[in-house]
Amino acid sequence: MSGGRVVTLTANPSLDRTLVLPGPLTRGGVARLGASSTEPGGKGVNVARVLAAAGTDVVAVVPADDTDPLVTALAALSLPLVTVPTGAAVRTNYTLTEPDGTTTKLNEPGTALDAGTRAALTAALAGAAEGARWVALSGSLPPGTPADWYAELVRAVRGTGARVAVDTSEAPLLALLAAGPEAAPDLVKPNSEELAQVAGTTEAELLADPAALRAAVDGLHAGGIAEVLLTLGGDGAVLSTADGEVWSARPPRITVRSTVGAGDSSLAGHVLAALAGAPAAERLRRAVATGAAAAALPGSALPTPGQVDLAGVSVQPGLPGPVPSAPSAARPVPAAGRDVP
Fold it and tell me: pTM for the whole thing?
């Protein structure tokens, strides 16, 4: 599954602290926590860790001091790193997980990056991307960062020959799409809520109307984006390509334990399959299977190849039919990528 180097950038990395609740969260109450854990995280870091576990040559670029606990933890995992010092501690994010798989995220804002640090990160990313097959830009931007910075980064690595994937939301996603074809990444990975925001509609309306879903995806292709990996939580995902291929997939049956890292794992699964030269349908299969494998694990744990159930994923051509807009008690499954930047 190797086939070339992958570089990830996590502009707003984190230490992910997972707290396991014994039952449903009660506001104002007292909960006696079960086992807890702390993992090095941030969306790009998660992508890099899944790729590394599959034997891929991967480098993670992060803004962090070499003495930061995040860097220490990643070094202990033998993950190759390029660091740019910030002089401040990496943020901590908190995840509360309930026995039924419900996940509540409490994310700190992160450390603001000045113009000099952003320039150093851009240069570090471009240097690491030379000769790489893929570059993944993932997650939220730190406070005070210009919303169009991802567009700037795409332009900075365009000349390296690497394909670029972006997974972000809200203002950074809108600014990236508004920057025009010269800043268009090769792949974006929105979830249904993010795609609805881009399309100027509601998530419920988008999911209830396949024609509206098709129009929203086509709008991304019209802006120069070659592939759209749309994750639909427990309803699977869609992969659409600019040359007209559209595939949808449903995940294997799992017991959801935590959705942290599910979307990142989906992106990693797609990249793994792309590195192996897999066609679109198989890229989607691996994306959905890897995302579901992450959702079946506790806390911030990320899947290894042996935990990925490719055979359990059903893939078919075309868009899915109308999709329920929100999980119900009978369908509590953001399994294929509904996590938070």
Answer: 0.91
